[in-house]
């Protein structure tokens, strides 16, 4: 992958959170953190497009189907 260097400005509190993530080992650098954030945003946009396509093809899900999905996807306790 070809990379290009850019300069960006971030609010001080956001940059502080990025540095916390780096210190905690959850990111390797500011660039790595931002790259990961952009990748996650692209995934969300892709999922939104998929949902729009499915809704266009099949219509809105029924209430009972939404309730089932919420139960199935709910975090497990204990």
Task: Note down, in words, how this protein is organized.
Helix content is 67%, strand content 0%. The protein is mostly helical and 78 residues long. It starts with 11 loop residues before the first helix and ends in a 5-residue tail after the last helix. The model has no long low-confidence stretch (mean pLDDT 95).
Q: Could you list the spans in which at least 5 consecutive residues all have pLDDT below 50? A: none
Q: What gross morphology would you assign?
A: extended
> What summary fits the major beta sheet?
none
Number of strands: 0
What is the ordering of alpha helices and beta strands? Answer: HHH
Class per helix and strand makeup: mainly alpha
Q: Kindly report how far apart the N and C termini lie.
A: 43 Å
Can you count the helices?
3
Strand content: under 5%
Helix percentage: 55-70%
Give me the Rg, rounded: 19 Å
How would you state the average pLDDT, rounded?
95
What keyword list fits this structure?
single chain; 78 residues; mainly alpha; 3 helices; 0% strand; extended
């Amino acid at each position: 992958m070809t990379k290009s260097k850019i300069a960006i400005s971030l609010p001080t509190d956001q940059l502080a959170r990025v540095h916390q993530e780096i210190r905690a080992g959850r990111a390797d650098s500011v660039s790595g953190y931002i790259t990961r954030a952009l990748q996650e945003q692209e995934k969300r946009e892709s999922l939104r497009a998929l949902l729009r396509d499915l809704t266009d093809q099949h219509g809105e899900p029924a209430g009972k189907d939404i309730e089932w999905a919420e139960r199935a996807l709910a975090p497990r306790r204990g």
